[in-house]
Amino acid sequence: MATYPVTIIGAGPVGLTAAEILSYHKIPVRVLEKNDSPSKEWRASTFHAGTLELLEETGITDALISMGITADKVQYRDRKKGLYAEFDFNLLKDETKYPFRLQCPQSTYVELLHKRLKDNKYVDIQFNTELVEIQYNDEMVTIVTNTPDGQNEYNCSYVLGADGARSRVRKSLGLDFDGYTLEQRFLLVGTPKPFNEYLPDISYVNYISDPEEFLFILKVPEAWRLLYPINPDIPDEVALDKDNIQKSLQRALKTKDIFPIVERMIYRVHQRVANIFYKNRVVLLGDAAHVNSPMGGLGLNNGIHDAVDLSIRLVRIINEDSDRERELETYNAARRKVAIDYIRQISERNTKVMSEQDEELRIQLQQELAKEANDKAKAKEWLLRSSMIASIRDQGIGKLPESIV
Ligand SMILES: Cc1cc2nc3c(=O)[nH]c(=O)nc-3n(C[C@H](O)[C@H](O)[C@H](O)COP(=O)(O)OP(=O)(O)OC[C@H]3O[C@@H](n4cnc5c(N)ncnc54)[C@H](O)[C@@H]3O)c2cc1C
Is residue 111 within a helix (H) or strand (E), and if so which, with residue range? Predict the structure, then answer.
């Protein structure tokens, strides 16, 4: 039987990215997934320039671009007053090959990776295999799994916990997941009916403020997506009712037209970061390590950056005998800093400007954003941060331990 030094828990977008990068460097990996196939949920729908740059070498970026659409502007609107700030990605044309946001559902990315990996001789993906327990010491990690044929146990050198927000790996390590969960629930709906017929000049990414029902409008190749908060007194099944969704769409787009619904999903927003991203030979990445508000389209992208950073380090540890503890310590320091000082800040600011109840404060937040958008140097800085180019430039990806002071 082939030996797999690295086991990845979770065949989500982040686990499969790590499998892709490690196998690209000829490190054998085993991926364990509790479900019987890769997830088809659309969920995230944005790939930022920083991410496209990181995935370029493997050829994923070109494949992904061919399946998505590009948003060249981000708009901030007020539901009553209309457009108040617009950031144009064209300002980044001398900074990156990808001066846009690529709009493409997460499920397309997962499917693309799964197709590339399923016949890769360095990768073994096992579906219907749920991690139930982990034990580790300085020499190895022992994994216990549940499969349709019963319980299995085996050893490997490293375990990557890419098993999502409710991570069993994180819980087995006994790590805290500090932060908060918003009381509000959100409803995401998708329809193929073009929103730009109702809101002319709308861009493919729009944050629309309103104290009662703010809106986040996005375009993916298959549909327009609308995300809005649900009234706290309404149970999930009522919010998901197709007639009620029609009413929300009609209110948002100021029409009586009927919209075919191709996607509807309720979810909660969390801002949480694990207190440490590794213990010994077990490392967390993606939603297992951090979760944030989707306002900014950053969660998946940040997880992909973790996967690339960590894979570069594992290649050095396994192939070049680099010091494991120092590499993982550096991973922890850099990736926690990005999660707290970049991702949380950007997503909290977006959420606040859209949802602030206090009118004076909301207007002040809108004016600050408008000022940034109208000042070329400031707008460029804003775009570099929100495209995740700034966090890569400042914190690096897979930077050598000695380069961190
Ligand atoms: C509605 C919505 C919209 C979003 N929009 C955006 C966006 O626009 N941009 C963005 O960047 N992010 C967005 N996000 C966040 C993004 O979806 C997540 O950050 C992303 O899915 C994280 O990927 P992951 O691989 O870390 O975890 P997951 O996608 O949760 O994958 C984890 C995998 O692990 C498997 N697993 C779990 N437990 C076990 C176990 N014990 N054993 C084996 N397998 C296990 C699961 O079945 C799953 O396949 C959005 C999220 C939601 C809910």
Answer: helix 106-117
Give the Å distance between the CA of 198 and the centre of ligand 1: 32
CA distances from 313 to 22, 231, 258 (A): 10, 45, 52
Return the residue matching tokens 């979760």. 291
- In the numeric block, the tokens 């490997």 are attached to 156
Pairing of strands 282-284, 290-291: unpaired
Does 50 contact ligand 1 (Cβ within 6 A)? no
Residue 23 Cβ < 6 Å to ligand 1: no
Pocket lining: 11 vs ligand 1, CB cutoff 6 Å: yes
**CB-based burial label for 23 (10 Å; 0-12, 13-18, 19+):** buried
- Rounded to an integer, what distance in angstroms lies between the CA atom of residue 312 and that of residue 38? 24
Contact predicate 204/103, CB 8 Å = yes
**In the chain, what are the domains?**
6-71+102-178+271-351 (3.50.50.60)
Confidence bin at 1 (pLDDT 50/70/90) = very low
- Whether 373 and 86 have beta carbons less than 8 Å apart is answered as yes
Token output for 334: 């850099």
Q: Distance between CA 398 and CA 1 in Å, rounded?
A: 31
Say what the pLDDT of residue 41 is.
Answer: 87
* Contact predicate 120/104, CB 8 Å: no
Among the listed residues 70, 1, 52, 69, the one whose alpha carbon sits nearest the alpha carbon of residue 30: 1
71 C-beta closer than 6 A to ligand 1:
no
C-alpha of residue 13 to centroid of ligand 1, in Å: 7
DSSP letter for 173, please: T
| Residues contacting 235, CB < 8 A, separation 6+ | none
Sheet with 158-161, strands from edge to edge, namely 123-126, 29-32, 6-9, 158-161, 282-284, 278-279
Judge whether 329 and 401 are in contact, CB under 8 Å: yes
Rounded Cα–Cα distance for residues 385 and 379 (Å): 10
Give 191-212 pLDDT, tens digit per residue: 999 999 999 899 999 999 998 8
46 lines ligand 1 (CB under 6 A): yes
- Nearest alpha carbon to residue 156 among 280, 294, 11: 280
Q: Using 50, 70 and 90 to split pLDDT, how confident is the model at 53?
A: very high
